[in-house]
Design a protein that fits this description.
Elements: H1 10-15, E1 18-21, E2 29-33, H2 38-46, E3 52-56, E4 61-62, E5 70-71, H3 75-83, E6 86-90, H4 93-96, H5 103-110, E7 114-122, E8 125-132, H6 138-149, E9 154-156, E10 167-171, H7 178-186, E11 191-194, H8 204-212, E12 216-219, H9 222-239, E13 243-246
Parallel strand pairs: 2-3, 2-13, 3-6, 10-11, 11-12
Antiparallel strand pairs: 1-6, 4-5, 7-8, 8-10, 9-12
């Protein structure tokens, strides 16, 4: 693999977060995206803007079919970012942490789910949210989910068709962990919406637990469930008097 270390800041090398690439002293426009994929980086470059910043949730691209799933940014495109004075900044866990612009809150809002209580400890953050759905049936919620993300979603219907008290668990990205599902039991929740639900060695235990405890899982891909936070952040940057644009990417349906 070709190293991109020469483009990375010392801070990022130490913390794996924050200012990834320091390519400009002035920022006139911000682009937000979930992953710095080739497609996203090429779209930003095609804007021909100078003195800009790409804000990403993850500093690496995602492909669940590749070993390790995450892979580094394209070196050639990084050089073009440098030439065009476009810096890169990332916030992973801080953006996942419960708050106005967090990934799970933004995901819940996009589906008309009213956030009520955070849960899901992850590196000191609370990355999930319990909320009240407008629908009382799994199928009704699935249809709204598909409409929100613009593509099919997965449904592992391990529980009842009826959503208990219309209360659901929402975890953007990947909530396919037993310790996350255990918290649903204490809240009497039988439905979870997340991103990655594909059955593999990593998620096998979570699927077995969900099936045993009759918890239904709905998945909408890593990208599609986290993009709503990056879209919501446009308002944050505009309040800072910075022009901002969300850069669309393609979901990995293999996540389902």
């Amino acid at each position: 693999m070709v190293s991109i270390e020469e483009f990375l800041t010392d801070e990022f090398k130490t913390r794996s977060m924050g200012l990834v690439c320091d390519f400009t002293e002035k920022i006139d426009k911000v682009y937000t995206a979930v992953f710095p994929t080739k497609e996203v980086m090429q779209k930003v470059l095609s804007k021909k803007s100078q003195n800009s910043m790409l804000f990403v949730h993850h500093p690496s691209a995602w492909d669940i079919t590749k070993p390790g799933a995450f892979y580094q940014m394209d070196k050639t495109l990084l050089q073009k970012f440098k030439d065009q004075n476009i810096s890169i900044y990332n916030l992973h866990v801080p953006l996942d942490n419960y708050g106005e612009f967090s990934t799970s809150v933004a995901f819940a809002n996009a589906l008309g789910i009213k956030p009520e209580k955070p849960f899901g400890k992850y590196f000191g953050a609370l990355c999930g949210v319990f909320g009240k759905a407008e629908e009382s049936s799994i199928q009704g919620l699935r249809e709204k989910f598909e409409k929100a993300v613009g593509h099919k979603v997965s449904l592992y219907k391990y529980g009842d068709e009826e959503i208990k008290n219309k209360k659901v668990a929402v975890v953007a990205g990947g909530g396919n962990m037993v310790e996350v599902l255990e918290e649903l039991l204490s809240e009497n929740v039988n439905t979870m919406l997340t991103g990655i639900t594909v059955k593999n060695e990593i998620s096998r235990a979570a699927h077995e637990f969900a099936q045993q405890k009759k918890i239904s899982l709905l998945g909408g891909t890593h990208y599609s469930t986290e993009k709503f936070a990056c879209i919501a952040l446009k308002e944050y940057f505009k309040k800072q008097r910075l022009a901002c644009e969300f850069v669309e990417d393609n979901p990995m349906l293999e996540d389902l």
